[in-house]
Each structure stands twice: as C-alpha cells, then as structure tokens.
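In this section we walk through a basic example: taking a raw amino acid sequence and producing a predicted 3D structure, encoded as discrete structure tokens. The instruction is simple. Fold the sequence below.
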Amino acid sequence: MRRLQRSRLPALLLVMPSLLLAAPPPGTRLSFVSCPVLRDTRSVPCWLSDYQSERYYLTIQSDVSAEVQPPLMGHQVLVEGIVSDAPPICGGVVLSQVRLSAMPELDANCREELPADDRYVVDFNPRPPGPSGGRLAFAADPSGVGAPPAPGTPTTGPQKIDVYFDFDKGVSFRHPSVLVSILDAARRGGATRIRITGVRGAHRLSNGALLQEAPATGRRRAEEVSRLLNGAGLALPAEVNWISGESAADGVDDWQSRRVTVELLP
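The resulting token sequence is shown next.
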C-alpha cells in the first residue's frame, strides 16, 4: 500500500498546478491591465484578454455607438468586470458588467490576432445599413422632446448628475444622452447656477497595484463638460472644480471614480 501511494505522487503534482490556475468562481470581481487578443470568426471578430493564465471574453468588434467600446490593437486594455457563470464565448470566460478602457500608451507587444476557428461562433445582430446610430454630443433629438428624466430623478430643486468616462479619456460618442439629460434637467428645474466637479480616477487592480489617471484628467474633464454645456445654451454661472480620487480606490466599482459630477442649483 505504501508503494502504491508513492506512485500516485507524481500524478498529483501534475494535477495541482492546473487546479491552482483555474478560473476564479462566478461573482469574483476582476480588474486587470493586459494586451487584448483579436480572434476572427465566421460572423464578427471578438476580443479576448489573458489574465493569470486564464482567457476572458471581452466583447465583439463594433462601431462607436456600442455601449461597450472594443479595445485598440497596439494598446493594453484596462478590464473591469465580474466573472459570470455563462457559457464561454469565443473560447473565453465571460465577464458581466464589463468595462473596457484602452490605455493611452502604445505597446508593440499588443498585436496578437488569431484566425477563425469553427469551434467559435459569435451571435451578431448587425445594425441596418448606413452610418452609425450614435449621435454626437448635443445633436438634435429627432423626437423633439429631449431625453426623459431617469426614474426617481427630481424635476425641481437641486439635482446631481454623474457623467462617467473611460480611463484617461474625455467626452466620447457614448455621452450624448447624459449630456442632453443635464440640459433638460436644468431647464425643467429652473436652475440658476451650476457646479461641475471633475475627478481624477484611481483603480485598485486585482493584483493590489494602484492604477491612476494622469494628474490633469479631472480638470480636463470638468472644463470640457462646462464648455460643452455652455456652448449648447446652458449659459449659467458655473463653478468648476477638480479633485483626485486615489484614497477611495478599493477594487469595487472603481470605474465610478472616473467621472464629472454636475450639480444643478436653484
């Protein structure tokens, strides 16, 4: 019996590394920076990224109107999400509530492209022919009524609206609706002044490292939002501030530190 147990030891040693490198259980929050990997498929290319010997599915290749913007080839990507129990997509573990931010620095190592593999088919409902349905900030609303207030949002008195951003980025194609909502809320509520506070975001990565945005990011965002609102006709006295969010970074919804808070005051 003792000889049999010794003979099993090498096999156990071979199995243990694979157990240690297994994907974290569903519900685990992940925040990491890694090179994206582009895989071709018969329908639409998909984006993946590797972290701690596990491959994760991020999103499909899409245009600027998509809610989740795909990574950029040649740049690392900040991935924030929660491990889900959904079936793998494109050969990667699926992350729910995923947020992606292409890092600004070029990285020559981030150039991996994989050929199409018949094992991986990605569902894709293409939008109708023609230009993207996304609108630039403050483009005319075809309905003529503007964006409706969010459920539970007061229509009078002081109001506070948060605008969230990708890492080290300013206003993009994803922001028209929230910016129009600020305009509408100010007009409905009779605001007479406005306070705009930009926050420099910070993120506690899963490996414990602290990732910070560029020092001037909070100021740049606050001034950009103020300039856009003023240019769209919201000519109210504006107090523009900016702060740093390093102390609040704990790895839980740190994306909320990448923001501008707009306060509409009576």
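Looking at the output, two observations stand out. Confidence is low (pLDDT under 50) at residues 1-20, 126-152. The chain has three helices and 13 strands. In the next section we compare this with other chains.
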